[in-house]
Amino acid sequence: MQQVLADAELLFHRRDIDHAVDQLAVRISVEFYERNPLVVCVMNGGVSLTADLLHRLHFPLQFDYVHATRYRNSTEGAAVEWLREPSVDCRGRAVLIVDDILDEGVTLAAVVQRFREQGASSVKCAVLLRKQLARPPQVTADFVALECPDRYVFGRGMDYQGYWRNLSDIYALKAATP
Question: Angle at Cα 99 formed by Cα 96 and Cα 101, nearest 5°?
Answer without folding.
Answer: 135
